[in-house]
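My hope is that you will study the protein record below before we discuss the fold together.
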Amino acid sequence: MKIVIFGSGLIGSQVASKLGDAGHDVKALGRADGIDTTTGEGLFEAVTGADVVVDLTNSPSWSDDDVMAFFRDGTGHILAAEEKAGVGHHVILSIVGADRLSDSGYMRAKVAQEDLVKAGPIPYSIVRSTQFFEFIAGIADAGTVDGTVHATPAHLQPIASRDVVSHVAEVVTGPPLNGTVEIAGPEPLGIDELVRRLFSVTGDDRSVTPDPEAGYFGAKLDSAALTPTPGANAWIAPTTLNEWLASKA
C-alpha cells in the first residue's frame, strides 16, 4: 500500500516508522520537501499514486484566527489535491471532546477540519484521541503561576502515544470508515492528579493546586469534557499511567 503522511511530529514520525516496518511504501512529507498545505504548494505531486493520505499536520500558532486558517485552508487544499489524483482514503487525527469545548479556538478549528473532511469528496476516517501522556508536562507548564501549578480536577482519560500510533496505523491500512472512531487510555483521572503523579517520577518540585477555574489551554471544562463521548464505543488502549511512568523512570 502506498501511503503519504503529512506531519512529522510525535505521532506522524511514529506512524511512518510503524507502517514502513510493516512493509508499506510510506512517504512522510513536510515543508522541507516543498510541501505547504496552507497554500497547496506541492500537494498534487505528493499525493499522486497514493492509496491513502494521512493528515497529521498541526498549526504552528495557537491564535484563534491562525489555527482556524491553518486547518481550514490546509484541509481544503489536501482534499482538492486528493480528488484530482484519485486518492481513495483520507485519514485525520482529531481530539476527543473537541465539539464540547467551543470556547477554545483550537478546538473550534479541529471541528471545522472534521466538518470539511465529512463534507468532502474523499472516503475518510477520523480518529479522535484523548490527550497523550507525553503532553501532561505541557499542561503543567501552561498552568504554572509563580512556581505553583494550577490544574483542574476535571477528568482527562490520557493515552500513550504508542497506543495512538498502533490504532491510527490500523485505521490507515483498513477500509475507510466514513465516520469517526474515538480512542482513549484506560483510566479517567483528574488533571491535577496526573500532574502530581508525573512530578513524583520526574522529581519536579513545583506544588500542584487543584483549581476548577484553571481550564484547559483556555477552555473551561466540566468533569467529562475530555473523556470519551457516551455511546461512542471508544477503543480503550492498554497502557496505564503507571506503566507509562515506569517506562520513563
Notes: The radius of gyration is 18 Å. The chain has a mean pLDDT of 96.
